[in-house]
Amino acid sequence: MSxxxxxxxxxxxxxxxxxxVRQATAADIPQIADLSDRAYEGTGMIGYSEGMVKGQLHHxxxxxxxxxxxxxxxxxxxxxxISGEIALKPHTWGGITGSGYxxxxxxxxxxxxxxxxCVDPEYRxxxxxxxxxxxxxKLCQDEKMLGIVFAGRLxxxxxxxxxxxxxxxxxxxxxxxxxxxxxxxxxxANHFEVLGVIPKYLEVDAASLxxxxxxxxxxxxxxxxxxNPPKKxxxxxxxxxxxxxxxxxxxxxxxxxxxxFMKHVEYFVDVVADYKSDFVVFPEMFALQLLSIEDQQLSPxxxxxxxxxxxxxxxxEMREMALRYNINIIGGxxxxxxxxxxxxxxxxxxxxxxxxxxxxxIHPTPNEVYWWDIEGGLTLNSIDTDCGxxxxxxxxxxEFPELARHLVDQGILFLFVxxxxxxxxxxxxxxxxxxxxxxxxxxxxxxxxxxGNLPGVANMDIQYGxxxxxxxxxxxxxxxxxxxxxxxxxxxxxxxxxxxxxxxxARNSGTVQNLKDRRHDVYGVRWTGK
Length: 530
Prior knowledge:
InterPro entries: Acyl_CoA_acyltransferase (IPR016181), C-N_Hydrolase (IPR003010), C-N_Hydrolase_sf (IPR036526), GNAT_dom (IPR000182). With about 525 residues, the protein is α/β, with parallel strands linked by helices.
């Protein structure tokens, strides 16, 4: 983590073609994660997960750079904006970076924070670090920021501290050019000044003994004083002014065939598309309606196999619907037997550009385990859409705040929660938790549930639902935090127009600023799944 060195290696590869320095894109994420693993191999530190890189890109896409050679990512640079009140005081790497997700990015921050530079060990010696530092400085100047701040590594400290007695004396020797460190000497040559030493900055950095060298580069084109007029607030990619969401409160009823089931689904997709909706959400387990075709109560294993047989066709036709009606579909959830033999409750997301994503339920309920032998999934990732990054949590998952926070760290603004509850107290557990997720993460939460019943289908005897669209509770939103709400236990569609910019304003200047005020120095969420 922090700033890696670019010391040449004996196994350096020769670059036959040219080098391209550019902003990172979502397509680069797997390669960046793999690069970071290789860059920190043998140091005791681990690289970035794909979720972390997603967060960095979603929070501040302008600030993430890669160097590409012959179609391969060989260097990466990550930055975000932050206020001097935070960056110029002692801090830890995890605290200031939001545990590596860049979730403390402040669109109004006057300083650029350098959280990462890493270079492929096989390509060191080509001044790749210098090229990335140049890109950072150009971004800082183009955006009229005051300068760049970060804490750098001291990879030679553990071997040389005994000779100098203290880390301060060792740094002084490097500044005086009596000693050389591959990282700090490079940074000093790039006109960074030492502000001090931060103990326990990154405790897993054994070579640096956990220390970070607090460094600053001042933008020579800007005086350190408030700028006037204030700059326009930006947040990542250009977001639409308004996003229209529709939640389907779906009635469970017997169907005679798969075709009849899809006609019911298409009816709602057609309706909400006529209203120019960007998203439509269906409930959890709504595909269990397909089991009524069998006209007999199946055993749990027979039920799962029956549903699994329908899965390929379900995915094909739902994808076609999303394309044909120009709408993003959160396709409820569909219990499925996976190729590895596990049974998982999968939410399929069909985007109007033809892409299809899968989000497994992380926490199956005791009922799901009993009736369907469902196991919890291991992946939870944000999904890039034309309306910004979104997340999906299936019903019970919304009752675990760490999951929503993990998605918010990846940059989501919209959380979709398909649910299936049998009576009011079950419903209210999900509802109250969803409202809490909206408040504590300053996001929109869209709930979609079933009504009606399916006699003869195990665990779908009765349904209680009241679908709704929830918001934070602050002045830009409805006073009670409810943008729209269906009448309970009737089949209907509920719409709401949501403004992403209102969330950004609330996060940075609201009555309360839950995300901004998190104590990253004392707690955080660390994802160990895939």
